[in-house]
Write a structure and sequence with these properties.
Blueprint lengths: L2 E5 L3 H13 L3 E5 L2 H11 L3 E4 L8 H9 L6 E4 L5 H10 L3 E3 L3 H11 L11 E3 L3 E4 L4 E4 L2 E3 L3 H12 L5 E2 H8 L8 H15 L9 E4 L3 E4 L2
Parallel strand pairs: 1-2, 1-3, 3-4, 4-5
Antiparallel strand pairs: 6-7, 7-8, 8-9, 10-12, 11-12
Pfam families: Response_reg, Trans_reg_C
Organism: Streptomyces katrae
Subcellular location: Cytoplasm
Length: about 220
């Protein structure tokens, strides 16, 4: 049974979430603040975290960073904040999606976190002349050094590398990396592709590996 950790300081919201999630056959733990959330996550190892950003003891983004220090558990941010900067900050810290009604997306988040069938038989280390991507270890190496990537940068890199040589549409990238409710925020892609090129390409202004197909999408070439 899938275990969900709900983190919110409003008892009415927690009660509603717990009732709805249990009705959908999820096991549920609840925390009212960030410290409690981090302790519960370490003790109970949830399959999904539903997290409010407005917590009494720390910002929810700090909780995301704390979790991402040791786990890749899917994190769905449940928040009333609507600023795109705040959304980007949460996603960049390692959140998997930013939603107001998480139930329909819990299964999708768990599915994305599970290894794909037969993934062990796929190529897991991809080498170019300038850098190496190890999909199993979730790291990139350039000139003998690990490249520091944010969770969002890694997710974008992973999708492109797993589809090596194929055009990946803007919409597909947005939905796979940022979540099902995204599809038109192409500015996100421009920003993060520029960051990947800066960190991995020998000449970021003339990329050899991360190719833009104007108006269509992006392609990774060895």
């Amino acid at each position: 049974m899938t275990r969900v950790l709900v983190v919110d300081d409003e008892p009415q919201i927690v009660r509603a979430l717990v009732i709805n999630l249990k009705a959908r056959k999820y096991e549920v733990d609840a925390a009212a603040d960030g410290a409690g959330a981090l302790e519960l996550a370490a003790a109970r190892h949830p399959d999904v975290v539903v997290l409010d950003l407005g917590l009494p003891d720390m910002d929810g983004v700090e909780v995301i960073r704390g979790l991402r220090g040791w786990t890749r558990v899917p994190i769905l941010v449940l928040s009333a904040r609507h600023s795109s900067d705040e959304k980007v900050e949460a996603l960049d810290a390692g959140a998997d999606d930013y939603v107001t009604k998480p139930f329909a997306r819990l299964r999708a988040a768990v599915r994305r976190a599970e290894p794909a069938a037969g993934a062990g038989e796929d190529e897991v280390v991809v080498e170019t002349e300038g850098f190496t991507v190890d999909l199993a270890a979730k790291k990139a190496v350039r000139e003998g050094r690990d490249v520091r990537l944010t969770p969002t940068e890694w997710h974008l890199l992973e999708v492109l590398v797993r589809n090596g040589g194929k055009l990946v549409s803007q919409k597909q990238l947005l939905q796979e990396v940022w979540g099902p409710s995204y599809g038109t925020e192409t500015n996100y892609l421009r920003v993060y592709m520029a960051q990947l090129r800066r960190k991995l390409e020998t000449d970021p202004s003339h990329p050899r590996h991360f190719i833009t197909e104007p108006g269509m999408g992006y392609r990774f070439e060895k």
